[in-house]
Structures are given as structure tokens and as C-alpha cells.
Amino acid sequence: MEHGSSRGFIWLILFLDFVSRVTGKTQVDALIALRSSLSSGDHTNNILQSWNATHVTPCSWFHVTCNTENSVTRLDLGSANLSGELVPQLAQLPNLQYLELFNNNITGEIPEELGDLMELVSLDLFANNISGPIPSSLGKLGKLRFLRLYNNSLSGEIPRSLTALPLDVLDISNNRLSGDIPVNGSFSQFTSMSFANNKLRPRPASPSPSPSGTSAAIVVGVAAGAALLFALAWWLRRKLQGHFLDVPAEEDPEVYLGQFKRFSLRELLVATEKFSKRNVLGKGRFGILYKGRLADDTLVAVKRLNEERTKGGELQFQTEVEMISMAVHRNLLRLRGFCMTPTERLLVYPYMANGSVASCLRERPEGNPALDWPKRKHIALGSARGLAYLHDHCDQKIIHLDVKAANILLDEEFEAVVGDFGLAKLMNYNDSHVTTAVRGTIGHIAPEYLSTGKSSEKTDVFGYGVMLLELITGQKAFDLARLANDDDIMLLDWVKEVLKEKKLESLVDAELEGKYVETEVEQLIQMALLCTQSSAMERPKMSEVVRMLEGDGLAERWEEWQKEEMPIHDFNYQAYPHAGTDWLIPYSNSLIENDYPSGPR
SMART domains attached here? Predict the structure, then answer.
């Protein structure tokens, strides 16, 4: 009996392994089909070079994220210069939650089969040249929250089936769609900007008891006016020159720019209980951050800026705020809106459920688990992607100037979200000496910025490198407490000394309790040292950092740097020789899937 049970157990294990392999192979086949459709040009082949048809699962491939069951949950191929068409085989990824193929050169139609991706939360196909209709099958995606199809060549009518979806974000503007805008379902919450620059008819007005001729004239007038408003709104969005009248808070209109809103002071006073001290989430050099609850029960974080008011700065403030709002990436804190009165400047963000990396490392409540090593790796990658977007993909480059663990926020699934970007410029929009006014936090400020006051994207790279050391050690970038042990008060200097004299484990946060991979720690230290080189020119760009974190080029860059720096740095790098970067892809055990932040800071 015992022997039979053992044999049955073995067969069960073999069967489960077989099922796993079959499932994995199906996913491999689906992604290879996608690669075949998109593999035009050397750049594409390089982007997808790790996609190997001989693999059992695709979970080790670049730009692919899996869950603990080795099921693909995310494809990250935005802004990858891809061309070709989507393939119906994508439906063979049943656990896919995030499909990101935005800002490429993709043509053809959206496959009907995407409607079979029942776990899909976000579909981002914007800024391509996709044609044909929006498939009505997308209406089956009961978990879809983010649908962004704008800046394509889509035609036909908006499927009525989409109105039943629980959408938080919808943007199908700048296409060739026609017909009526549905008025039922979740569509009612979206402004005209979500549908702008199409051939769509506005939502029908209620019938009037006036004579038929007058009614017809009214309808024509409404339609013409709506069309004019659509065009004007689209122009405002593209040119970033929107202007809101600064009226007293009690009379503030509800003004939207896409999903971006001007809030009234009254509703933010109610949301924060008149900026109650018990709602304070944090205080920084830009102002105080409060937790708030809007009338629809949505949690937000409201930053009450402390900058000095000057006459005539309202339009410039609005322009800068709107510029910040246009930076949309899942690793950037999304600006929901603002409030401006003669006496107040406020910014409204989604509430970040898990606070900041700094608070998770050093201020976590008793009973809350420490950030584990896989999460720390994912935070390193996510924050790098967000900064790279600010530097390379915004209409106007945004330099953060204060990259640190306290400004890397974590949503409910511990996805890293870069916060407070754009505020350095926003708070100095009327300062003629902005180029020489040093901003930042001691311990994170790049040496060239400190000495000259001149910043560049390499200033952010330095701050990012120090933030990596915060992730590894759990310590502050500047800490007078280290003087008690005759250690350097600057984290970067302390790390270098420890590398000279002590073992690697002396650096790693004790909160990890030894649960980390030594080679991975070494590689993140290598990355941090490359990013914090004294010469700004020698530091990598954030886009290069992302590529190295994804497994491309760290070993070569590190070897090159060692040859140049060995006479200067007096510690034995050969004691830590591991240069492999396989782990640096988005880790396959990730449960981090949320596309938009929603919680405290």
C-alpha cells in the first residue's frame, strides 16, 4: 500500500511537470509568433534577442514578467521601435494582465482574440499606426481598468460592449472613429478629451419642446459647439498652453484636461479635513503632504506647496503643472490634478498604499514584514525605468534633482513609482537664478551640481546610485549616527570603506536576515558605483542603467571601469568577481502588477 502510494505520488509529480511544460511551451509559441511578426530590423532583433523558441518557458526572457506559476503576466515592449503587426496567438497567454506595446510603429488591426485575455488589467497600444475597428470582444475583459488606444488610425464605431467595463482610464482620442459616443455604463465618467479628434457625434441632448425647426437649429448648434470644444481641447492638450481663470475657491469650476482636473479648494479642504495634522503623510522641502478622501470615496495625497506667491505667475504655474501631468508611465507618480487660488497652490496625486521606499526600509510599523530581496531588485528596475522616461521620452526633458529612497513610492503591490518629479522647476518658475540654485538632499547631491549649480540628467543618475545603496544597506544617505563608530557619515563613502576592509555581508541590510543572493548584491553594488562616479560624463545614462538591469552590458561596463579605476580604488574587486547578469531581468516571481499608483506617502 505504501509502495503504491509512492508510485502514485511520483506519477502525479510527473503529470504536473508535463502540464507545466505544455503550458510553458504554449506561451513560448505565442511569444515567438509575436517576435516573428515584429522582427523587422536589427534594432528589433536586439530587443527580442533573448526570446528563444527552444526554452520551456519564456520567464527568463527580457521584457517578460511571470508569476510564481511561470505564467506570463506582463509584456513590456513600449517605446521599443518595433514594427509589424499584433498576432492572435497572444490569446494563448491566459494570465496576461499588462500588455504594453505603446509608442512603436505597429500596423494592422487589433486581434479579436485579445478579448479572451480575461485577466487583462491594462491594454496600452497608443501611439502606433493600428487601423481597423476596436474589437467588440474587448467588452468581455471584465478586469480591464486601463484602455489607451489614442494616436492610432482606428476606424468604425465605438463598441457598445465597452461601456460595461470597469474602466478607470480611457483614451481613444486622435483616431478616425465615427458614430455616437455611448452614454451608458462607465463611459459617462469620462470627459470629451477621451474621445477628441475623431469623427464622433457628441452625446445626444434631451429633446426640446420647441418647434421642429428651432430644435434642429439647436441640435446643429450644439453639435458645432461640441466639435469646436473637442478641437480646442485637443489643441490645448497638444500645445500644453491651457489657461484657467483664477477665480475664488468658492467659484472654482470643474475643469478637466483629459483625466487631469482642476480641483476647487473647497473640495480639498473637505477631503483633508481642513488640512488636519492627523492627515499629514509627510513634510518635505516643497511642502506638506496630506491624506485626503474625495467625495466619491477615492483616496488621494494632496501636496500643499509652500512656495512664495508672486503676481503674474499663475499662467506659468499652470503650464508647468500641465507639463508634469503629461508624463505618464507606470513607474511615475501620476498627477491627478491641481488647485490654484490667490493664496494656495496644491497638487493632487493618487494615494500610495505602501508609502515610500525610505519608510519601508527604516520606519515600517511593527509587525509589517521587511522589504524582501526580490522586491528590492524590482524597485531598482522600476525606478530606473521611470527616470529613463523622464530623461528620454517626455516632450521636454524633466530632471528630477532629488532622487532618493524617500521619493520612490510604492503602490499596493509594491511597484516602484517615482514621485516629486518636475517640482524643482515648478517651484522656481519665476526664479531667474534657477541654474545656480542647488536643490536636493545632502548625501544624494552629485559633486558637479554641488560645486557649480549646473544640473543634467547625470545629476539624477548619481542620486539613483545612492538610492541603490539605500536599498542594499537599509541605511540613510547621510547619517550622523555613524560617527559613533568612527564611520563615514556619507553612505557612499562608508560603502567604499567597507568594500576595502570588510566582507560583503557587512553591507547588506540586517532586516533581510541573510535571505538574498550574494552575486545579485554584488551586481547592484557595481551598478551603484558606476552611477556615482565623480565624473558626470563617465556615469551611464538612465536608459543604459535600465538595459544593464535587464541583463545587457553590466559585465562589460564594470570590467572597463575596473581597468580605469584600479589605481585609484584600493579594494579588491576580485574578491567579488561575479559579473553575470541573468538575474537582472524583471524577476519572474513578481507579484507586482499594478499599473497606476493608488496610495500613501
Answer: S_TKc
